[in-house]
Amino acid sequence: MLPEISPANIELDADGLPFATDYNDRYFSRESGLAEARHVFLQGNHLPKAWQQQSSFVIGETGFGTGLNFLATWQAWQNDPERCQTLHYISFEKHPIPRAQLAELLAAWPELAEFTQQLLAQYPPVLAGFHQLHFAHHQVRLTLCFADAETALKELVAKVDAWYLDGFTPAKNLELWSAPLFQALVQHSKLGSTLASFTVAGQVRRDLQAAGFVCTKQTGFGQKREMLTAQLATIPPSPNIYSDKAWFSLPEPFATVGTATVIGAGIAGCQMAYALAQRGWQVYLLERHGELAQEASGNRAGVISPKMTSEPDWGERFYRQAFLYAVRQLSSLATNPNHGDLAWFPTGSLQLNHSAHETKRWQALLERDLAKDFIQLLDATEASNLAGIPLAMGGSYFPQAGYLYPKSLCKALVQHPLIKVHTVTEALRVSPTTEKTWQVFNTANQLVTESAVVVLANGKDMTQFSQTQFLPFLAVRGQTTQAPANAYTQQLKLTLGHEGYLTPALEGQHIFGASFQRGESVASIKPSDDDLNYQQLAQYLPEFAANLSRKLTSHVAIRMTTPDRYPYLGPLPEPELFLRTYAGMQHGNKYKTWPKVSYQPGLFISAGYGSRGLTTTALCSEVLAAVITGEPLPIERSLYYKMHPARFLLKKLQQQRD
């Protein structure tokens, strides 16, 4: 897993330019950082000409720094009438500049102000991991990989058209100019990929040539007499970084946009429809009820917040990256006039230290010293001041968190001309055709839709399909409770978490709960669950509960989760063929002998989100859309593998080893 990172240490030199004290080097040229970016990286990679008339173009950069190269590239793309349809920009940064400091530095470039403000609005906290940002109606996608470049390259899933080899001078930052890094670049490049850099250091040229690039010296910028350009002429034989995970290999992508059917119009299905429609796909969204968001997504309010652990692990990484992506999406939707009815309330969220276990986790998080714009560890007085009501304990405060009305988000997501919603339409069976499409049939065995892609996203009804029978699901019944607000309870300013959660008043109602009953698959209201929810509230927030009206109403739903709490996301394998193909694993066969997995072409799944679908489905849908279309993945490779639908088939084989 990518290790935690620290922010950049920057001072301003005598010319007022940013200077990295840890590397004893400047971020860009004294003459003009912007002109240098255009000369070295854009012209050095034949841009904008190289991306013209392309459906997509991928740029990789080894040091994000102030973001000046990205902003110059985005501006050039925006001004080019022949630009590619989609620009992917992937950048690595071991020591990111915090947002407030970045804003001060980029203010020096007023001609980029339009682009700078949009970047700053989405710029993530200094937290390790992959963070994808969307601009220009999703046509410009920036993936910030906050990690050292060589480690991030091991987790990257992408093929790059042009590289910006940037960073502090080789003499002061050897790890960013190493032979292993250049070899990793090749593994993520296309034949003919170009490269440009400000340095012509002899060792850099020799290592690039050994990796397969043909290098050429060009006229440098400013006081630098020369710069370097290169083109990948050959991809030398080298170990395939994916060979040890053949069973999780990516399916063949769809080279052109087409038609897709998404089954289930809860939050998972609506997010999936939105992600594909943003890419130009015609999407048919099927819902068996008369309205959207009637099952697990039908709660009156749900909380958007991360899930933290004492020690960093993949689970925490998944939830915090998904949380940050969800917040960026909600902010974008909320400012779009076409989605004016989105009920999203970014009030902040406070996870209380309500138990010895939670207090121990709070202390561990305090010692990790994470970014303050992501998490703040508060005592009882600080927590009370933020919450607006007296609290007996402190907790973990997430300033970007909040709560929303899930149905309003579903409605906002489907307001797209390429999404056609079909309500009162039950999908009971899916079947492949000889034309490499999928047909969807209803309970009367009538054809409902036919499309190139089908995504199964219908929650608790997922197991009705024969293609999903091999997947282990766990049903969890959850009931939330509503109570009218009054003068005292309306003082609550943010969401509170304990064993359950509590929201501020939404249209005069507080929502709290929820019960959590594994193995129950009947969604019927239980008055006893309302009593339990109230008792839990009274245990941790006694004064609030004492002031709360007991005129309670409820919502109940069945949520589907998985044994390891990661969702199922990706292409569906043929289970019997999978088990036969990898049966030799039981006898310790070498990894390199395995063929790639065989999938059911065009059939995908997005399910098993449990009670955290509001936080996780936005990022997961973006990941699955990238898998379908063959785009760079917006998350780490290892994280994608943890959600792969074949993982329990693999575990079954591993458990049967001699």
Characterization of the model:
With 658 residues, this protein is an alpha/beta fold. Strands 16, 17, 18, 25, 26, 27, 28, 29 and 30 form a nine-stranded mixed beta sheet that branches. Strand 26 (495-497) and strand 27 form a beta hairpin. The mean pLDDT is 93.
Mind telling me the C-alpha Rg?
26 Å
Give the strand content.
15-25%
Strand count, sense and closure of the main sheet?
A: 9 strands, mixed
Roughly what percent helix? 25-40%
Number of strands: 32
Anisotropy-based shape: globular
- The CATH topology of the largest domain is given as Rossmann fold
Number of helices: 18
Report the structural category. alpha/beta
When the domains are counted, the total is: 3
Task: Please write out the topology.
Layout (H helix, E strand, L loop, with lengths): L9 E3 L5 E3 L4 E2 L6 H10 L13 E6 L6 H11 L7 E7 L6 H8 L6 H10 L6 E7 L4 E7 L2 H7 L4 E6 L13 H9 L1 E9 L4 H10 L1 E7 L6 E7 L26 E5 L3 H11 L4 E5 L15 E3 L9 H21 L9 E2 L3 E4 L3 H13 L7 E3 L1 H8 L7 E4 L3 E3 L1 H8 L5 E4 L6 E4 L5 E4 L5 E5 L1 E4 L17 E11 L10 E3 L3 E2 L6 E5 L3 E2 L8 H14 L1 H6 L5 E9 L6 E6 L1 H7 L17 E9 L5 H17 L7 H6 L4 H9 L3
Parallel strand pairs: 4-5, 4-8, 5-7, 8-9, 12-13, 12-24, 13-20, 16-26, 24-32
Antiparallel strand pairs: 1-2, 2-3, 6-7, 9-11, 10-11, 14-19, 15-19, 16-18, 17-18, 21-22, 22-23, 25-28, 25-29, 25-30, 26-27, 27-28, 31-32
Helix pairs in contact: 1-2, 3-4, 5-6, 6-7, 8-12, 8-16, 9-16
